[in-house]
Amino acid sequence: MMSKAITIAEAQRYDAHTINEIGIPALVLMERAALATFNNLLNDDFDLSRVVVVAATGNNGGDGIAVARLLHIRGIDVEVYLLGDPAKATSQTAQQLKIANYYHIPFTSDLNHVVNATLIVDAIFGVGLSRDITGKFADAINAINAADAKTVAIDVPSGINADTGEVMGVAVVADSTTTMAYNKIGLLTITGKQHSGTVHVADIGIYAQDHLEHAR
Ligand SMILES: NC(=O)C1=CN([C@@H]2O[C@H](COP(=O)(O)OP(=O)(O)OC[C@H]3O[C@@H](n4cnc5c(N)ncnc54)[C@H](O)[C@@H]3O)[C@@H](O)[C@H]2O)[C@H](O)CC1
Ligand SMILES: [K+]
To answer: In the sheet that 107-108 helps form, which strands lie side by side, from edge to edge?
Structure first.
């Protein structure tokens, strides 16, 4: 059931259908995305001594901040390196920031913490990437790639165009990628495969409509 690969437009359409027509709240999907990533982190035998989640303020970042919370509650040393203006976060990511604040999850603005992590979670961009990456976002991706740490990407390695596999200026080279609902066609290209590592497709409750016909 989960073997097909989809485009960015399909991912966005299935998300919107699940939220707006079926009625599963967006935060429920985000929690499932975070739990799936968290489970892959725990199962894949990574060194979890110092985890840094690098997150931007879109929903990919929200997934990452929720992963940071799940790790923190487990007693794992985790920090969040936040990129972008939190005042412009999506509503779900603003909610994740509020929850993270309740748990006093540490935030860092020091890229050395990224470089010295034992595991990095890439939650900068997913299917919302829309232009070449520059500035602080590019600096963070270069730091992730310079680190000895293993890197796990959420949904798409940041900087990879999920339709074409093209590197949008610069892109995270991940050891493993937890991608949501279906694989993305860009991750099946040569550059896509080089950047995503081992791909885990996570069932988070989002399905193509033809896959749901048997259930209604
Ligand atoms: N929709 C859902 O409920 C779910 C989404 N999931 C995750 O969300 C991302 C997609 O989130 P979205 O907010 O649409 O986009 P991104 O987070 O990927 O990024 C959008 C954000 O970034 C800005 N932007 C785009 N390109 C650049 C750039 N080159 N430089 C700087 N900024 C850039 C853009 O303007 C937006 O503000 C999806 O991949 C999933 O990870 C969940 O999985 C759950 C369901
Ligand atoms: K990502």
So the answer is: 107-108, 78-82, 51-55, 119-123, 150-154, 176-180, 198-202
